[in-house]
Amino acid sequence: MCEIYHLHLIITIMTTQELQIAFEEAYGRKAEKMYFAPGRVNLIGEHTDYNGGCVFPCALSFGAWLLIAPNTDKVLRFKSLNMPQTYEIAIDKIAPQPDRAWCNYSLGCMAIIARRHPEAKLEQGYDLLYYGNVPAGAGLSSSAAMEVVTARAFTEEMGWKDTDDKAYRTELALIGQACEHEYAGVMCGIMDQFASAQGKKDHAIYLNCDTMEFEHVPVKLEGIKVVITNTHSPHHLDSGAYNDRVRQCQLAVEQISKVKPIKNLAELTEEDWREVEGAISDPIAKKRARHVVGEVARTADAVEALKKGEIAYFGELMTASHVSLRDDYEVTGPELDALAEAAWQVEGVLGSRMTGGGFGGCTVSLVKDEAIETFKAFVGSEYEKKTGLKADFYVAEIGDGVKALI
Ligand code: GLA
């Protein structure tokens, strides 16, 4: 096992050989298959996915690994190199386990594969070993990585696999999302699982979450890095506050539909918004909807800017996104605000914003190479002064989506 130092954040990397050894230590025999699925960072397009809007995430080079070998006992044995709890579940007793058991992410995927693909059957038991190196609670989609890696492994084991690779990857994302809804209770959009399934090295994914059409856009940033900063804030993505946002947006859709029938908030242009905003009587729902309409427009503009190499404008849109998430969507909180606001003051920072669900987690910033040291020093010390917490910094490497390793 080796540890690589990306600025401050220590990411533990295990080779496939080391993971094989860990499997042998856990189960006394070799794993037959090994898969990897990445976490993600979203560049822009936040809280738009469940509103039928566009998002622009990238898969990361860290994520979740799964090693498996069939057993003859008709049980699923779950072990993880990150979690002390182990589980043993009979293959005909797949159901959510109590106390937020981590194996629910895996069981959920198996149950959903069987439901969505009646020909898929779990006919034998398996020994499973998971390992993840996405910083926990950082809003970089460690749970989506676990869902997608499980969906990849078990669609194959259960005997269903689409021969069209693109359609297959989208289906893996949909299985993961359904698992998050039904087994974790977070009514998330499709972005995280989609990025984990469809990621491409050095590209971001411009995804229309309504139609699921997408495009890989090269991320070419001469002399500029994508820097992820972790708040290490103790609040994790709070499913209660997240699900509240989903409901508030639905309320806005219902109220707007009285004057202009719509299915999703993302259908509204900024011009439409000026015509319909008066129809929303609930002041909270109005603010949420205003964020979504603005963010959808910013995301489209940002993608164009990146394609044209207008990185300064891309950065401005990222910053505007944070302001809207802070003031209208109210998902940032003091830690994310402290990081972003400090970053905006550093010369050589083109833009900085929260990424992911919010309420803690990480920011994503575009920083010129020569400004990275100042960025770390200034943002790190301002953050500590304001919150008493230490931030971690990581230069993102954009990686591929889910894959089989052996
Ligand atoms: C979480 C959810 C995503 C998305 C983001 C906010 O990461 O899982 O579906 O809604 O929050 O953009």
Molecular structure report:
- The structure is a single chain.
- The protein has 406 residues and is an alpha+beta fold.
- The chain has 2 domains: 207 residues, Ribosomal Protein S5, domain 2 (2-Layer Sandwich), CATH 3.30.230; 172 residues, 2-Layer Sandwich (Alpha-Beta Plaits).
- 41% of the residues lie in helices and 23% in strands.
- It has 11 helices and 15 strands.
- Strands 7-6-8-5-3-15 form a 6-stranded mixed sheet, sandwiched between helices. Strands 12-13-11-14 form a 4-stranded antiparallel sheet.
- α2 crosses α3.
- The radius of gyration is 21 Å and the shape is globular.
- The two termini are 19 Å apart.
- The N terminus is likely disordered.
- Alpha-D-galactopyranose binds next to α5.
- The site of alpha-D-galactopyranose has 10 residues, from α5.
Number of distinct helices: 11
The coarse silhouette is globular
Instruction: Give the domain tally.
Output: 2
Terminal CA distance = 19 Å
CATH topology of the largest domain: Ribosomal Protein S5, domain 2
Structural class category: alpha+beta
Helix content: 40-55%
Q: Per CATH, which architecture of the largest domain?
A: 2-Layer Sandwich
